[in-house]
Each structure stands twice: as structure tokens, then as C-alpha cells.
Design brief:
With 88 residues, the protein is an alpha+beta fold. It has one domain. 44% of the residues lie in helices and 25% in strands. It has a four-stranded antiparallel β-sheet. The longest helix has 14 residues. The chain is globular.
């Protein structure tokens, strides 16, 4: 999974729609740059044992930030984020 973490950090990308979706799910008003920085930093500091590949997606759970990031495993495109407290 370490290889996948490096690939994700190198190739991560976003669609225009995902910025609005992230702000809606997190109940925030982050700029595109702030979202990209936040996502990158969370992925970077998350241990690889918190990365799960299920089907066509990676699910990256970070309890410290109470967030789960969903990324397409083929395109490395961020799909969404969810608060962990709402998932359980």
C-alpha cells in the first residue's frame, strides 16, 4: 500500500464539482487551494494501514481529522470526503 500512497500523492486530481461536494460534506467554505492542501496533508500523514482499496476506490481514513477520503484507484481523482462520525 506504500506504493499506492506515493502514487496517490503524485497523481491526485480534482474535478470542479468535487470542491463544492467537499465543502458541503464538511459544512465549510474552503477555497480550492485550501481543499487541495488539506487533502494532500491528510493523505501524507495518514498511516498506510488506514488505506483500504475496495472495488475501484481507495478509502483513506484519518481519525485525527475525523475524515475519510474516497479516491478513484484508476484516475486518482478525489470523489468525496466524509466525516467519520457520520459513517459509523
Amino acid at each position: 500500500m506504500i506504493k499506492n500512497k506515493k502514487s496517490i500523492l503524485k497523481h491526485i486530481c480534482y474535478t470542479e464539482m468535487v470542491y463544492g461536494r467537499i465543502n458541503k460534506k464538511l459544512n465549510s467554505k474552503y477555497s480550492k487551494g485550501e481543499i487541495e492542501k488539506m487533502i494532500f496533508e491528510i493523505i501524507e500523514k495518514t498511516e498506510v494501514n488506514c488505506f483500504v482499496k475496495k472495488g475501484k476506490n481507495f478509502y483513506i481514513s484519518n481519525e485525527e481529522n475525523n475524515i475519510r477520503i474516497t479516491i478513484n484507484s484508476n484516475t486518482f481523482r478525489v470523489i468525496t470526503v466524509d466525516l467519520l462520525s457520520k459513517i459509523k
